[in-house]
UniProtKB/TrEMBL annotation, chains A, B:
Its cofactor is FAD. PANTHER family: GLYCOLATE OXIDASE SUBUNIT GLCD. Keywords: FAD, Flavoprotein, Oxidoreductase. This is FAD-binding protein. It comes from the Bacteria. Belongs to the FAD-binding oxidoreductase/transferase type 4 family. One of its GO terms (molecular function) is FAD binding. Residues 37-216 form the FAD-binding PCMH-type domain.
Amino acid sequence: MSTELLARLRKVVSADRLLTDPQALAAYSHDDAEWADFVPPLAVVRAASTEEVAAVVLIAASTGVRIVPRGAGTGLSGGANAVADSVVLTLELMTEILEINPDERYVRVQAGILNDSLRRAVAVQGLWYPPDPASYKISTIGGNIATNAGGLCCVKYGVTRDYVLGLKVVLADGAVVDLGRRTAKGVAGYDLTALLVGSEGTLGIVTEATLKLLPLAGRENRAVAGYFADLVDAGNAVAAVSRAGIIPAALELVDRTCLQAVDDWQQLGLSQEGGVLLLASVDEPGTRGEELTEELHAIFTAAGATKAERSLSAEHAEELFLARRLAYPALERLGPVLTEDVCVPRTAVPEMLRRIEDTARRFNTKIANIAHAGDGNLHPLIIAPVDDDGAKSRAKDAFDQIVADALELGGTTTGEHGVGLLKLPGMLAEFSPRVIALHRSVKAALDPQGVLNPGKAFPA
Amino acid sequence: MSTELLARLRKVVSADRLLTDPQALAAYSHDDAEWADFVPPLAVVRAASTEEVAAVVLIAASTGVRIVPRGAGTGLSGGANAVADSVVLTLELMTEILEINPDERYVRVQAGILNDSLRRAVAVQGLWYPPDPASYKISTIGGNIATNAGGLCCVKYGVTRDYVLGLKVVLADGAVVDLGRRTAKGVAGYDLTALLVGSEGTLGIVTEATLKLLPLAGRENRAVAGYFADLVDAGNAVAAVSRAGIIPAALELVDRTCLQAVDDWQQLGLSQEGGVLLLASVDEPGTRGEELTEELHAIFTAAGATKAERSLSAEHAEELFLARRLAYPALERLGPVLTEDVCVPRTAVPEMLRRIEDTARRFNTKIANIAHAGDGNLHPLIIAPVDDDGAKSRAKDAFDQIVADALELGGTTTGEHGVGLLKLPGMLAEFSPRVIALHRSVKAALDPQGVLNPGKAFPA
C-alpha cells in the first residue's frame, strides 16, 4: 500500500512538501493531546492549494488510505492524531487572505491562516473577527472551524460557527464544493456549512472560509477583578451578574492552584489576595462602559469579594487579565497537562468546582481550574508529573469522573475543544444510541468509504 | 390506502383532532404561498403531543403516506403545502411553555407556540427572545425553526438558528430524539441541531425547542427616519451606515409604491415626503443611544435625505416605524401578493432595486419593495389583480427574473423565508449539482423512505 501510495503522491505533491522521514512522521503524529492514542502516519503532505488537497484525498480514497487533516496541531482532544494507514494532510502552508471586504464586512481566507494573523489583517481595515480561543496566536482558522472553537468573548459574541458564512470543502472523493454564501443572511437549503463546522475533518476538509466580521469601532476595554475566599462566593458573584442582566465581554475564573502556579513562576503575589480570582471585561464604550464596570464592581463586592478592583485604563484592563493569560503556561511547567473542557449550566459552576476538588482528593491528583465562568465552560487542568505512570493513570480516572459529574449536572462533555478521541466515551454517555446512530448515518452519507479522519468526533 | 390509514389514525388520534371533511382539508392544503402547487391532503391531524406526532409518523411510514408538518401556515414559500398522498400534521395545538430558566437564560417550549406568546411570557421574567419575523404575532416557533426565520433585528442580533440550543425531534421512522444541549456552549458531535434548523420539516419534525434568551434590561428604543428622493441616495445612506461601523438594531427600507399604498389606505401623507423611506432603530441605552441616533441622523442628512427625523420617545420611535408595519397589509388590499425574498450584498441593494424597477416595467407588473436594507434582504412584493391570469403569469416571470438578478449580483435566492416549493428553481441555479446531491444524500440518510415533506427545501 505504502509504495503505491508514495509513488502516486509524488506525482501531485512536490518533494519538499511530502514528508516521509521518521522524525517528521513523529512530529505530525499527534496534536496537543498526547494522552490520546496515535501512530505515525505513512506520510505527511503539506498542502499548497485546494486542488492539491483534492488530489491527495482522491489518491487516498483509491488506495485504501485514510486522511487525517490538521492545521497547527494545537487541538486538545486528539482530533488530529494520526490513525493506522493514514496520511496526515496539513494545511499550515495555506495562509493566504483572499479578500477583505469592508463594505460587506467579511473576509475570505485559506484555512491554514492563524487566527491572530487574520485578526491583525482585518483590524487594519477597521474590522474585528471575534472568536478568540486561548490558542488564537498559534491555532489556525481551519482548526478553529473543525472544532467550532469558542474562547473568552464568546459569552457575549458567540463561537466560531456564528461567524462562518461559507466554506470551500474537499469531499471524501476529492470533489470540491462551495457551501454557504457571502451575503449577511441566507437560508437556501440545508445548513451544510453549520454541519461542517465542528465536524473535525470527518465530513470534508475545509480549505477556504468566508467569515463574517464586526466593526472594530465603538468598543473600549474595561475590566473588573475580584478575589474571593472560596468557590461558593465566586459562584454567587457569577450568578448575580447573570441575574442583573449583564453580559460581560468575558467572565473568567482562575482558581487557587492556578494563582499559586503563576506566583511560583512570576512572583506576582496573586495567591495572597484570595482563593479564587474572577475577571470580568466590559467593552461598551464611554459612560455605558463606566456604568457597567461600576455595577460589576458592586456585584463582586456584595458577593463577598475580599478585594475588587476596576481598571483605570485599557492597559490596566489587560494587566488585570495577566493571571488568566499566565495560568496555562505556569501549569505546564509542573508536568504534562490533561485538559478538561466540560460545560455545565452557569448555576452549577460552584457545585461542579466543588466536585472537581473532591475528585482531585479522591484520585490523589493535582487539578487546577480555569473557567469561562460566564458560560459554564470549565477547563480543569489535570497535572501528572513526568514519567509517573501511576499518576497518569489516576489523571485519566479523574478525567472520566469530571465528565460523569458534568453530565449528571446537566452539562456536556465538551464545551469548545471538540470530541476528538479523548471525549468519545463522554459523548457515548451524553447522547442516546439513536443520536449516535444519526452521526453514523450522516458520516456514511458524506464519506461512505470512511476516508476522512476515521474514528474521530463520534463513537463509531 | 386511505381507508387503512384513517382506521389506524383513529386508534391514536382522538376524533376531534383528526379532520377529514373537505373544508378542513382545503383549509390545511397550503400555507400563505397559494402561488405554489398544492393538493388536498388525505387527512389533517392536529397533534397534541410528541408521542402522538411519533405515532402518526410511524403510521404514515408503514402505509406509504407522506407527512406534511406545519405550524400556523404563515409560510411564504409553500413549505407547508400539501403533496399527493399526504397527511398534514399541524402542531398548532402544542403551545405549552415547559420551562423558563432565568438563571441559565433559556426557555423550553412546544413547537406550536406563537413567537409572540413566547416573547410575552419570557418578558415577564426580564428575558428577551430576539428573532422577530414580521409574522411574529401569527407564526409559530416550530415554523420559525423550520425556515430559520430572520426578521428586523437580525441585522444586529442574528436569526432563529442563533437561538436554538436544543430540539426534540420525531424522525422519519417515528423515533424521538433529543438533539443539542441546554448549556450556553457545547460542541459534542455534529451540529445536528443546526442541520435541522431551516430543513423545512424534511429531516424530522421538531416538537420541542430549547431557546437561548437575552436579558431584556439595558435596551432603549430610538429611531431615525429618513426620506430620500430615490433609491440611489437611500442606498448610499445604507452603505455609509455600514462604513461608519454602526450596526443598528434594524435598518429598513420602504419604497414609493409601499408609501403610496399606505397613504391610499390610511391617508398619512407619507408619499409626499419623498420617494424612499429609510428607518433605523437603535437600542443602546442612555447617552450611547443618543450618540448613535445623532450619528445616523447626520449620515442620512449627508446622504441627501429630503427629510430626516429622530424619535423623541420610545412611543415616537414606534410611530416612525408605522409605515413599515402597514406596508404589507396595505399592499395586500391591492390583490394577491407574490412575496420575494432574495438577499444580495449590502452594497448591491441600490442596483438590485433598480433592476427590480426595470423588471416591473418589462413584465408590466406592479412591484413594491420592503427591504431589510441593513443585511441586503429584499422583499419585492409582486401584486397581481384578482382573477387576472395574464397578470399572474407575468408576476411569476418577474419573480424568476428577480432571483436571476440577485444571483448575478452575488446574492442568494432566499434570505429568510425558505425554499419551500417557490424557490426550488432558484436553488438549482444557486448551487452546483454536487451540492444539490449532498442535500439528497443527507435526506436519504435521515429519511430513506421519503416520508417527511417530500419535494420541499431542495430540488429532488
